Amino acid sequence: GGRGLVAVLAALVQTFTGEAPKAGAVASAAPGSVAPVSAPARVDDRADAQAAGQAHGEACEEGGPAYEVIYLLEADDTAVARLRARLDGLGDSLVVVGGDGLWNVHVHVDDAGAAVEAGVEAGRPYRIRITHFGAGDAHMAGAGRPPRERAPRAVVAVVPGEGLAGLYTEAGATTVLARPGEPPASGELVEAVRRAHAREVVLLPNDADLRHTAAAAAEQARAEGVRVALIPTRSAVQGIAALAVHEPGRRFDEDVVAMTSAAGATRHAEVVIAERESWTMAGICQAGDVLGLIDGDVAVIGSDVTITAATVVDRMLAAGGEMVTLVLGDEAPEDISDHIDARVRESYLAVDTVVYRGGRQGAVLLIGVE
């Protein structure tokens, strides 16, 4: 907000006077006082101005759309079909997912206003986020500091809760927090890649709905000279499995293969509370029902969180497994991990249970079976 206003005013000054304010010209001041501003530095020639402009825009992929637009939309299926056609003509990287009247819309465009207006015509858009791709590291341009040396390799992961963010960070990953109902934009993932400041990056989206967003972020990072491998993890528990075998000392390709194999060998499930009546693979659910989803599909409909979770674990272990990973959300019952751990020890030989606290993560419980 404030930084954006400063950038606009600086551009206005340079346009009308030919003089560009110095970076960091505003000094700190006491509360309520006016901060002194140093005299603007004169732009001596066109070459200096052109170099400054190139530094400001270097983060934006040449020839690509300037903005990423994301919003939630309440609309019927017919209106969404028209919206898809309209947005497809405005830009690229179009993703519209959802159902039952609620949709998540993502698109890269040059005209962000038109993308939002299309949503207004289709229904009720909200939680609107617009990211300018070229704004990434503009504040670093001309800072006069020597460039920090890049790390050899880093892992960037999307995580659904503060607890998991801490776990991933302890394991050395750079994290992007995905709040319930607010998936991160590709611009946020690109920013995380920049924060990681590595020559090679492994990207873990940890959500099937983020695969297009993560792919767009990977392309943007590659355009900036970073070698990026996208592992299509569909859940945070698959990301945990991948991170557990991450070895920075290995060759990049070997490390990516090992992490991909570990993630692929991990089945994932989650226990959530139904928000509305809906048709599912397991039958019709009502608002307030407890749903057990295995590999993205509803497999169990119940009324008790602990019993439903135990049923889900039983179904997953019926196909075999060596380790059960539980990630508890804030709404999980206090004794659920003890109950499932005891059930696993009694019913399955040589199967370990690991428990983490994920905090506010959208799902009551995340389950992984390796």
UniProtKB/TrEMBL annotation:
Fatty acid kinase subunit A-like C-terminal domain mapped to chain residues: 64-370
The keyword Transmembrane is assigned to this record: no
InterPro entries, sorted: DegV_domain_contain (IPR050270), FakA-like_C (IPR033470), FakA-like_M (IPR048394)
One Pfam family, short name: FakA-like_C
Keywords, alphabetical: Kinase, Transferase
SMART domains to which the protein is assigned, alphabetical: Dak1_2 (SM01121)
Gene Ontology MF annotations: kinase activity
Domain of life: Bacteria
The protein, known as: Dihydroxyacetone kinase
Native source organism of the sequence: Streptomyces phyllanthi
